[in-house]
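hiii so um. not sure if this is the right channel but i have a protein structure encoded as tokens and i wanna go backwards to a sequence. like what aa goes where. can anyone help
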């Protein structure tokens, strides 16, 4: 017999309807008897009937209102409610004659608790461990946890908790309503629980006694009936809803707070008052409170996690409090999940039903804490006790836990629970271990489909095979990308999805969303899990494909932005992924700067439409890694119609396009110098004349060099002012212009080592913002129409006689202040740009008497991954790169500065050769000369002592 206790009254309506039919059917007989006694009986019967109807409806509406309808937001919870409609059977109804007899007045002797109550017999002492080693290990771990929490979140004693301000006025009008839910199966503890609840210092609002699939259902119902308290209701079903049934019932409460108790918990008489007060504090209002909790396993030395029930293992975690090891709580402790009792706001209960649980057979305790943290940022806490006052204990008789134990003593249940907590940790659950020992990895990859796994595989494997690098991958799981399918795509054994070791994380987004097609489910699931994983592992970058689902992209962006440790989201176009394997060679500290730089392309053009067409095609064929790359066209006043049409119709998918056209002819010096000006210290300008052509890898070279030598906090290279795409074949500044081969020159170091050179490049180079501002100011102060009047005369340099050349002024400034350019160095001078030496402002100009051999300037373009040529397949450390002076002679960076200081021809005179002009890099303006080495923060790095 199953059903709701209150339904006995509700279902009496069936009998009343029958009684009414009997009454109507008997009216003819009553008319035949006109005696006075008959009329009296009729009147009394009608009066009795009216009273019965009144009493029936009165009792119904005074009984606890328990609506079994669930909220539509919880799909799987709704299924449970629908099951209830099928499994809940109407209670046994007394027959008409029995009820009629009772209505006439037959009195039934009421039963009392003393008639039906049973008590558990505990004939054993509390278990105590005599294992000295385990006592030591457990005590040490508990102390470590408590010390960490005291420093990180603060912990309070019971007295301190009760002294905190609470929203609940326990003695005033703002007293909380608390519904207590008692879940019973076999233990004979119901009377003890009801007795202590009736004596609470804070009265309860309702008590619901649940019996789902219990063999003791009838005796439990008799006990509830014996208390004869309208606040206490009995709810039963022959269907076993397992451990989620009590939380499903908690959704129905109208109270402010819910206290859910297992049948082995006998709370002290002050527990409702203590729990309500703490739940009303600002600090713990968004928490679930209890009296018993568990801290999940810590990582072992072999980087695996043990079972939470592993014997003689410190890493197996803690059970708190633990009488077996004499661990009692004198301060509140945050745990990974609570057991046996849960006290929380009714609103928080809904969180349990957002995701379908891993299993319905067990683990609702972990699932609740996991979901609360994942979606509500709520913690789980075990309250301290007053050891001298047993009424403050939530578990006054711990030995009950060993009576009729049904959950964690069996091996298969332990395995299920181990799998459950590991899946939670793998999906971003921040356990106490994770909080105490935050990890640091280089990259966390995310794939929402198996195809995305395959696309990311080369870069993931490069990270994992690089010494000193750590990288993991998270997959959506379920129908989107099952972990086993991802492992197969990566050529990993499927065992990686089961072993408790960090490598691949299954977020189970597809499995948890069920049949829902809502984009909110995916966004919420990915965001919540990735937020946790990022907080646990602190990756420098989160890497995924650029064409990933927009909702997933949004979720990943939100998750990375919430991390205070500056995790950067990197979105890579699939064709580019095999081209950026050098990413794994960057320092961990450089990776977060992946998106900081903004490289703009600035093209100077006028009337060489065929040259410009070739340049634009080469730019369009290059790899851009998903970055936004603005492009601008800078045209002089004499630009031809064909060029205007070409730049107007040119489509650039990588960023904004800007067209600039001068009104008055300015010449090359103005066209170049005015083509770009930095908007920030992360704005870099690539200057290209229209007879240049670039390699498909040019942008990768720039990005790699900036990250390795400019954005790495561990690299100090203030002398670097630009990055060249081109490798020269001549010594340009010497009158004889001898040929020069850097591959041969540096063969003793490495034939293909990049190098620093004091000569700037005008045939494809990226210029740095700080030094470009300096250059603007410098050229403005030094520009003269007559080159002979220029005060800077570099000894033995043919640049002294150059006229109308912006490059001449840049050479002068770099020489005086010790700046250098980074140059590529590959076989046969293969480069990332080449000059086709087509007629223009300088080449074939009327006043240019220098003859140019095209073979001295036109170099082959790199058409393959340049990483294969670098020393060791990667950029050497900055300290190992060789440096050359203006004349291609080896000289240290310090020596270059000393030479500039010795010349003493900068825009501000210096007193001696040990002083260099200081520059404000925000404005480019020089300030008073200062001794080398005395460098304020905002001044030029060129003041470093040689």
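sure thing!! here u go:
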């Amino acid at each position: 017999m199953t059903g709701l206790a209150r339904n006995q009254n509700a279902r009496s309506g069936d009998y009343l309807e029958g009684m009414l039919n009997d009454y109507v059917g008997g009216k003819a007989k009553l008319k035949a008897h006109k005696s006075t006694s008959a009329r009296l009986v009729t009147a009394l019967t009608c009066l009795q009937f009216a009273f019965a109807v009144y009493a029936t409806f009165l009792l119904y509406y005074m009984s606890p209102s328990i609506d079994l309808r669930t909220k539509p937001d919880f799909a799987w919870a709704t299924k449970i409610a629908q099951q209830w409609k099928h499994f809940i059977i109407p209670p046994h109804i007394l027959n008409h004659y029995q009820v009629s007899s009772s209505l006439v007045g037959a009195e039934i002797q009421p039963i009392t608790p003393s008639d039906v109550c049973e008590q558990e017999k505990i004939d054993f002492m509390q278990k105590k461990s005599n294992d000295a080693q385990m006592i030591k290990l457990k005590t040490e771990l508990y102390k470590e946890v408590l010390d960490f929490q005291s420093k990180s979140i603060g912990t309070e004693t019971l007295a301190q908790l009760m002294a905190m301000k609470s929203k609940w006025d326990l003695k005033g009008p703002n007293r909380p309503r608390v519904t207590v839910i008692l879940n019973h199966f076999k233990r004979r503890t119901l009377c003890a629980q009801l007795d202590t609840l009736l004596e609470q210092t804070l009265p309860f609002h309702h008590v619901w006694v649940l019996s789902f699939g219990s063999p003791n259902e009838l005796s439990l119902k008799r006990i509830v009936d014996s208390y004869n308290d309208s606040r206490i209701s009995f709810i039963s079903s022959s269907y076993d809803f397992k451990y989620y049934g009590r939380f499903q019932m908690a959704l129905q409460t109208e109270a402010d707070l819910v206290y859910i108790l297992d049948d082995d918990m006998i709370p002290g008489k002050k527990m409702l008052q203590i729990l309500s007060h703490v739940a009303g504090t600002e600090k713990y209002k968004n928490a679930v409170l209890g009296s018993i909790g568990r801290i999940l396993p810590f990582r072992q030395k072999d980087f695996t996690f043990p079972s939470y029930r592993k014997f003689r293992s410190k890493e197996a975690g803690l059970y708190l409090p633990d009488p077996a090891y004499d661990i009692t709580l004198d301060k509140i402790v945050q745990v990974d999940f609570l057991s046996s009792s849960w006290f929380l706001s009714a609103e928080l209960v809904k969180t349990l039903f957002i995701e379908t649980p891993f299993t319905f057979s067990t683990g609702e305790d972990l699932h609740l804490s996991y979901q609360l943290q994942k979606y509500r940022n709520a913690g789980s806490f075990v309250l301290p006790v007053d050891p001298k006052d047993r009424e403050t204990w939530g578990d006054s008789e711990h030995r009950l836990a060993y009576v009729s134990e049904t959950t964690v003593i069996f091996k298969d249940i332990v395995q299920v629970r181990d799998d459950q907590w590991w899946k939670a940790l793998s999906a971003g659950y921040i356990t106490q271990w994770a909080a105490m020992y935050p990890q640091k990895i280089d990259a966390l990859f995310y794939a929402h489909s198996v195809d995305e796994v395959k696309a990311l595989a080369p870069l993931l494997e490069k990270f994992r095979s690089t010494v000193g690098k750590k990288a993991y991958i998270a997959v959506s799981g379920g129908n989107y990308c099952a972990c086993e399918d991802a492992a197969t795509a990566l050529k990993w054994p499927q065992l990686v999805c089961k072993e408790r070791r960090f490598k691949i994380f299954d977020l189970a987004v597809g499995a948890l969303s069920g049949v829902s097609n809502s984009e909110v489910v995916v966004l919420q699931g990915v965001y919540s899990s990735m937020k946790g994983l990022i907080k646990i592992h602190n990756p420098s970058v989160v890497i995924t494909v650029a064409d990933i689902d927009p909702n997933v992209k949004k979720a990943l962006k939100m998750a990375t932005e919430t991390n205070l440790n500056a995790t950067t989201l990197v979105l890579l176009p699939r064709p580019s992924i095999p081209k950026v394997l050098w990413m794994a060679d960057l320092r961990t500290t450089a990776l977060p700067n992946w998106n900081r730089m903004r490289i703009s392309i600035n093209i100077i053009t006028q009337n060489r439409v065929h040259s410009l067409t070739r340049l634009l095609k080469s730019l369009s064929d290059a790899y851009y890694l998903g970055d936004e790359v603005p492009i601008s066209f800078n045209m002089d006043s004499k630009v031809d119609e064909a060029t205007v049409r070409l730049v107007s119709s040119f489509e650039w998918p990588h960023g904004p396009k800007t067209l600039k056209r001068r009104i008055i002819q300015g010449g090359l010096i103005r066209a170049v110098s005015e083509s770009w000006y930095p908007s920030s210290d992360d704005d870099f300008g690539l200057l290209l004349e229209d007879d240049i052509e670039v390699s498909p890898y040019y942008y990768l070279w720039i990005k790699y060099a900036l990250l390795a030598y400019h954005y790495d906090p561990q690299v100090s290279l203030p002398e670097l002012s630009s990055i060249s795409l081109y490798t020269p074949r001549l010594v340009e500044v010497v009158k004889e212009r001898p040929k020069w081969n850097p591959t041969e020159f540096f063969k003793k170091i490495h034939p293909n080592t990049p190098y620093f050179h004091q000569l700037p490049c005008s045939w494809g180079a990226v210029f740095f913002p700080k030094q470009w501002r300096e250059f603007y100011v410098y050229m403005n102060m030094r520009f003269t129409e007559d080159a002979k009047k220029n005060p800077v005369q570099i000894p033995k340099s043919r640049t002294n006689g150059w006229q109308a050349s912006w490059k001449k002024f840049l050479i002068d400034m770099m020489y005086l202040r010790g700046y250098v350019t980074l140059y590529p160095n590959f076989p046969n001078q293969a480069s990332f740009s080449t000059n086709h030496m087509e007629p223009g402002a300088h080449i074939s100009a009327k006043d240019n008497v220098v003859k140019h051999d095209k073979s001295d300037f036109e170099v082959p373009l790199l058409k393959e991954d340049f990483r294969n040529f670098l020393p060791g397949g990667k950029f050497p450390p900055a300290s190992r790169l060789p440096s050359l002076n203006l004349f291609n002679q080896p000289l240290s960076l310090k020596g270059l500065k000393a030479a500039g200081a010795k010349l003493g021809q900068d825009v501000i005179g210096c007193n001696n050769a040990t002083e260099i002009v200081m520059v404000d890099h925000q404005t480019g303006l020089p300030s008073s000369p200062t001794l080398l080495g005395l460098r304020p923060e905002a001044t030029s790095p060129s003041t470093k002592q040689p």
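oh and The radius of gyration is 40 Å.
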